[in-house]
Amino acid sequence: MSTMPLSPDWYPAINVRRSRRNYDKGRPMEPELVERLSRVCSEFRPYPAARLEFVPRPSQDIFDRAFLVYGNIRNVSAFLAFIGDASDPNMQEKLGYTGEGIILEATSRGLGTCWAALSYKSSAAQSMIKLNAGEKLVAVSPVGYTVETWTFEEKALTAFGATHQRKPLSGMVTGLEKDRWPQWAAAAVEAARLAPSATNRQPWSFHIEQNSITVSVRGSEPEFNVSKRLDCGIAMLHVELGALSQGARGRWEFLRHPGVARFVVDNQ
């Protein structure tokens, strides 16, 4: 399957992206932006087992009176649906990787998003998308322009809108000593450290070698009925974008639990 390459706009979007829960329903997306997101959802398909659908004009609010686990999501006028082939053993990480590409695309266009695996009405969302045989809806994200003022809830859940609350790299990286990390690897794990995860649990670890980074999942799997491997797939995309920022290209090799995948660089 051919797929569009990673966008150069996605790496700088890592530092801009925040989970936003309060949207400006009175400011619709421009038609060209709707077309752009729809096209990227169709064309960014690195793995056949993972895909996204963009629903720009939902017939109902899938977050209204939903079972809320991690903050209210308000005034949504469009959403992304994250869809995976349940028969693929690596579906969750492939979907996290693919979905984060679209999230960062939206971020780079000035839009807000928020990964949501529980806080939405699944039956309502499924009524507005097409699921093929064997597929399941894994998560959604609101997408659109956000209100300028952050709610107290948003501030509390995103370190008051200013910084990412993240664990130090020293507690999640093994392998080479830090003073021996290749420049591409340092950029890769710093980018991965900023990846979003369910309840901000950051369930990943990274093992750095001279020509590779291995992503593994920490703790039991799943947790809160949300796969930690989905989170690790998001971190995988951040790893690759960080490496690319230093000119390092590579490929992913999928692993058995607790391993998730190994990024092997080709040109270092």
Describe the secondary-structure layout:
Blueprint: H1 10-13, H2 31-43, E1 50-55, E2 79-85, H3 91-108, E3 112-113, H4 122-126, E4 135-144, H5 152-157, E5 173-175, H6 183-193, E6 204-209, E7 212-217, H7 228-245, E8 250-254, E9 259-265
Parallel strand pairs: 5-6
Antiparallel strand pairs: 1-2, 2-4, 3-4, 6-7, 7-9, 8-9
Radius of gyration based on Cα positions: 18 Å
Per the principal axes of the C-alpha atoms, what is the gross shape? globular
What is the overall number of helices?
Answer: 7
CATH superfamily of the largest domain: NADH Oxidase
As for the CATH topology of the largest domain, it is: NADH Oxidase
| Beginning-to-end CA distance, first to last residue | 27 Å
The CATH class assignment of the largest domain is Alpha Beta
**What structural class do you assign from the helix and strand content?**
alpha+beta
Fill in the keyword field for this structure:
single chain, 268 residues, alpha+beta, NADH Oxidase, 2 domains, 4-stranded antiparallel beta sheet, 19% strand
Detailed description of the structure:
This protein has helices spanning 10-13, 31-43, 91-108, 122-126, 152-157, 183-193, 228-245, and strands spanning 50-55, 79-85, 112-113, 135-144, 173-175, 204-209, 212-217, 250-254, 259-265. It is of the alpha+beta class. It folds into two domains: 10-157, NADH Oxidase (3-Layer(aba) Sandwich), CATH 3.40.109; 166-265, NADH Oxidase, CATH 3.40.109.30. The protein has a five-stranded mixed sheet with strand order 5-6-7-9-8, with helices on one face. A four-stranded antiparallel sheet has the order 1-2-4-3. The longest helix has 18 residues, at 91-108. The protein is globular, with a radius of gyration of 18 Å. The mean pLDDT is 91.
